[in-house]
């Protein structure tokens, strides 16, 4: 088995944080400490013992629902039927707590999301759905 295949076999749940044109923009959302949120997510991942990871990306697309976060299932979660979950309006400490708790517990396919986080789920943009089908 190749090195890349071994890594993919053990991929953890991953929180992808949009930090493009609108998400993370203090001019658009001046009451949100975007840097603190990202620091908390990264610290949670660092302390999770490899249960989940955090990465940032440029624009994910639905700018009218900023800040957008995508929670990707681990390999085990995907094998159990979990799929990527898009979360919109992810700006306050309660939402960040919910993201951390869900990812620590296993994320999509492993455990149910907190009910309050479920209220913030948004549909994936059409472009993302097309990319997944390829």
How would you concisely characterize the structure shown here?
This protein has 134 residues and is α+β, with helices and mostly antiparallel strands.
What would you say this structure looks like, in words?
This protein is an alpha+beta fold and 134 residues long. It is 37% helix and 16% strand. A five-stranded mixed sheet has the order 2-1-3-4-5. Helix 2 (34-46) links the parallel strand 1 and strand 2. The radius of gyration is 14 Å and the shape is globular. The model is unreliable at 129-134 (pLDDT under 50).
List keywords for this structure.
single chain, 134 residues, alpha+beta, five-stranded mixed β-sheet, globular, disordered C terminus
Query: How do the helices and strands follow one another from N- to C-terminus?
Result: HEHEEHEHHEH
Poorly predicted runs are 129-134
- Biggest β-sheet: count, sense, barrel? 5 strands, mixed
**Rounded Rg:** 14 Å
Report the total helices: 6
The tally of strands reads 5
Based on secondary structure, the structural category is alpha+beta
């Amino acid at each position: 088995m190749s090195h890349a295949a071994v890594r993919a076999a053990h991929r953890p749940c991953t929180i992808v944080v949009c930090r493009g044109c609108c998400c993370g923009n203090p001019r658009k959302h001046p009451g949100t400490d975007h840097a603190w949120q990202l620091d908390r997510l990264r610290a949670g991942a660092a302390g999770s013992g490899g249960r989940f990871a955090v990465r940032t990306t440029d624009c994910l697309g639905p700018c009218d629902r900023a800040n957008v976060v995508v929670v990707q299932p681990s390999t085990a979660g995907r094998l159990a039927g979990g799929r990527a979950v898009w979360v919109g309006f992810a700006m306050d400490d309660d939402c960040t707590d919910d993201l951390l708790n869900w990812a620590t517990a296993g994320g999509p396919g492993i455990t149910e999301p907190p009910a309050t986080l479920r209220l913030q789920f948004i549909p994936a943009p059409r472009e993302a759905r097309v990319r997944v089908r390829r």
